[in-house]
Automatic annotation (TrEMBL):
Segments forming domain Fungal lipase-type: 77-196
Gene Ontology BP term (one): lipid metabolic process
Source domain of life: Eukaryota
Name assigned to this protein: Fungal lipase-type domain-containing protein
Gene3D superfamilies attached to this UniProt entry: alpha/beta hydrolase
Amino acid sequence: MGKKQACMPSSFRAHVNRVEAAASLLQLVYDPNKARGMQGFGILQAFQLEHGEWESSMYKPAYLVLRNVEDRKRVWVVVRGTNSVDDLFTNMETEPAKFMDGHVHKGILLSSKFIAEQVKQHITRDTKEVVLVGHSLGGGAAAFATAILRNEGYEASGIVFGCPSCFYPATFAEELLNRHVVSVILDADVIPRLNNNTVFALIPAEGMENLLLSTKDLLLDGLLGSLRKNKPFARAVGLDKVATGEQLPPGRNFILEPFKLSSTEVEWNVREAQYEDLNKIVLCSSMLSDHNVASYLDAVIKSQLRHTRSCRRFEL
């Protein structure tokens, strides 16, 4: 038998160059000093910072606007993930909000509307495309901002990393996102798999309810009432048994997973995610560290995905 090799489906091959560029740009939105001075190398040397909002507030994530030096008709917008207390409050707004024919995590949807409006301010007559990039909370905002802009007639596409499971799919919205948003999930990253169903499967409802009730004296009655009204969270902790529907990360999801050639040598497989891949939390030591932006950078940039061969092993 021949030696096994890492490979990727052809459906991802067309996006490799952009995924590598997007991963490189992610580090800038987390590093103001580097971004302001554009002290980059390799891919980063091809971009120029046009605008930067470093302070986030509730429903208003930090973001950067950059242009490609050689192709100034293409605007890149990079949205930061959770990095402040206000970002945490945005994450806590978990109620499903109506979006097209589906529903979206309310905090992320409001953030995406904010990003879409900011992007429009940087679109000029000669802008031929907007590429939105984001990680974690920023990935969700970038994904739905892409859909909003596409729906309004703008040429937009999204590349997101570690995007939360924040989308309650429906036909039109799902098809739009699948066509125009590439979502990269690193191996066991828990955030894209963290939703009502997967948490509910891990924590027995009665056990969590008893835990909350036994500590009720430590909680304000209003807080417990708020938890009950927050249907997704309430169901996850066993306060509400009513199903809220399937949840997934938005876009066409691809899983990037290590492929060990030896004890010291690692390559990376890329495969298109199935629903079964995302409806169960992978319990392992890397489930949290895989979500770090640095982990995505290492996996995408250092693995040099462009040199990974195409194959049909992971084709649908």
